[in-house]
Here is the input.
Amino acid sequence: MEFKQVTDKAAAKFLFTQAYLTDDENANNYSPEQFEESWNKWLGFFTLSDGDKVVAFCGVRDFGDYARIFDRYFVVPDTRQDGLGNNQYVLDIINPILEHVGGKIPFFSIEGEDRRNTMERTIEVINDCLDEDAQFHLLDGMHETVPGSWQNIAIQKPHDTFKI
Here is the structure.
């Protein structure tokens, strides 16, 4: 697998639009409008490729003191595995993406109180491939990442608060 930063806006928008055109339940998260809104907020946009085929992409979004990794994370449907924590691509991306947080506190999140178990499993899997000082833990409660969007937050240890 090859991890790569995409700096060409048109190339990144093309990939994003391809995701929008799928029948994915979150396809609206990849609309051209969502891309335009996100592009200038990302510290970087990244792909994971198997040979010449992009199999996954995501951004690292600037949240002030924090950097949201796996922002708009998308896996091409015909290469998917079950769940974020069970996906080998997450493990292929996690270490290189942490090198692109620009000194900010990395976190990732998922919407829905009913998805805490998914977050716990994902954290466990991710932590297995990280050094102890780079591991994540799940914060208590739900946190508003943007107005009206309450999320479960996994943040890098030893940080135990999330305030934007």
